[in-house]
Amino acid sequence: MGFRFWLACYVLLGIAYFLVxxxxxxxxxxxxxxxxxxxxxxEAMLIRTPSNQHILIDGGPDYSILERxxxxxxxxxxxxxxxxxxxxxxxxxxxxSRVLDRYKVKNILMTGVVKDNPRYDSFLNEVYESxxxxxxxxxxxxxxxxxxxMLDIIWPIENMFGYEDQNPNNTSIxxxxxxxxxxxxxxxxxxxxxxxxxxxxxVDISANILKVPHHGSKTSSSTGFIVAVNPDLALVxxxxxxxxxxxxxxxxxxxxxLDTEVRSTSEEGRIELVLY
Length: 276
Known about the structure:
Layout: H1 3-25, E1 32-36, E2 45-48, E3 54-57, H2 65-72, E4 79-84, H3 90-93, H4 96-102, E5 104-110, H5 118-130, E6 133-136, E7 143-146, E8 149-155, E9 174-179, E10 182-186, H6 192-199, E11 209-211, H7 223-229, E12 233-236, H8 249-257, E13 261-264, H9 265-268, E14 271-275
Parallel strand pairs: 3-4, 4-5, 5-6, 10-11, 11-12, 12-13
Antiparallel strand pairs: 1-2, 1-14, 2-3, 7-8, 8-9, 9-10
Helix pairs in contact: 4-5
């Protein structure tokens, strides 16, 4: 047997080793994993609980979410326990129709608000075909994610199914994930109007990690809201050199002036947090 044969063997063994290592790293452990995926100017986050539950929040602006999920999930993982669509805008909803087509989704959390959007319509059609259990978000519908993780729905307060709003951003699902000593607040694309309404509610929105509303836009992240949350870390999902200028420099400075670290996919690409 010649040199080329043994070289090919070593290459195949090396590939096998890295594949096994990759699969091993995706196995459940005693930690909570949160990945803000790099989907460009949009948003998609994946949560893996210690009990190996997988929760996908939003699906990004295009179909690249399938590639991103392929990087995060085990090759043998063909189901997702919960998909959350925070609101129907295309930069959050477009990829979800393909996710529902490719994966077995067990549960879907959404608002059910009305929006004239072909990509949102495609998602709704896939929801109907999927057979998944649909949960309409409202503040008394908290969800046990397993492994001691609980999702506390803060907004909307009441079921918004069939509701039509000229600004769907303000109908976004706002939820707090609680696990051990960690509290992570997910905010969709809410703007100052909804931030103010939430602040008027008798609800605790404090969290050590905040998913920054609306990609760091100037229309969100009011000072009062940030103070109430009081996060140590703020995560921004935004595309590199995006045309909106997200995250806005003044918003980043606002967080930093309140002693909050800011990390953004526009600078780092994929961001993973492993919480112990």
